[in-house]
Amino acid sequence: MIRSPLMTVMTDAVMKASRSLKRDFGEVENLQVSRKGPGDFVSAADRKAEKILREALEKARPDYGFVMEESGIVEGKDPSHRWHIDPLDGTTNFLHGLPHFALSVGLERDGQIVAGVIYDPIKDELFIAERGKGAFLNNRRIRVAARSDMAEAVIACGLPHIGKGDHGLFLRESSVVMGYAGGMRRWGAAALDLAYVACGRLDAYWERGLNSWDVSAGILMIREAGGFISDADGGSNPLVTGSVACGNEVLHRELLKLLKKGKG
Ligand code: IPD
Ligand code: CA
Ligand code: CA
């Protein structure tokens, strides 16, 4: 598979930053860990990886802007392009030695995500997508699962943590979904939840209270893998509303119906 110059820039940056994360994984006692809010942690590992990503992307595309989880928004000279960066998606997993986390980078052009990279450094799994060119896992084309029976489907969700989100709403929605789904999972890294739906490991996924850096690459990944994605209320711009619901066409529609029932 021949990578475009843009995809080469993105994957090179992500691979470089991932080496820093890999070195830091399991070294929590040597990392400065702080809390951004209740249940919301950040460590020197997140910051180092973000700095590497920013420097590499800035070098290759000096005019593009940034929306970064740890360093915030930086406007670029080119107002039509900006990178959405999550240097470590799954920080809580990372800090607990749970080997399930990823880096996620999406490129927005005039409000649309046109390229996305999600990389799991522990499993060495690289998910990439470019608009109109398909989605790939380690150079092999991926598609969402074909399963259409909710009773056979495995559905992932995101749990709101202490101090965040509407816990009551989550309980209502998940108890409705639970009554129909074959199985449910909570993995703790939104970018990988989206990537796993894109490659058919998971049949559907929903979560509320996310940010553009969590979902930018994954939104494109799902669409390029033939899947459907909206926000959790069916709205068409999950990048902005920060909630997601996705799956193949049938399960996406079914999931939205169940979420609506749960919301009441
Ligand atoms: C978190 C993870 C988690 C999701 C949270 C996110 P972070 O990202 O994606 O799965 O439930 O809402 O904030 O903080 O580890 O980058
Ligand atoms: Ca995240
Ligand atoms: Ca993060």
From TrEMBL:
InterPro entries: IMPase, Inositol_monoP_metal-BS, Inositol_monophosphatase-like, Inositol_monophosphatase_SuhB. Its EC number is 3.1.3.25. Its cofactor is Mg(2+). It comes from the Bacteria. Signal peptide: none annotated. It is an enzyme of class 3 (hydrolase). This is Inositol-1-monophosphatase.
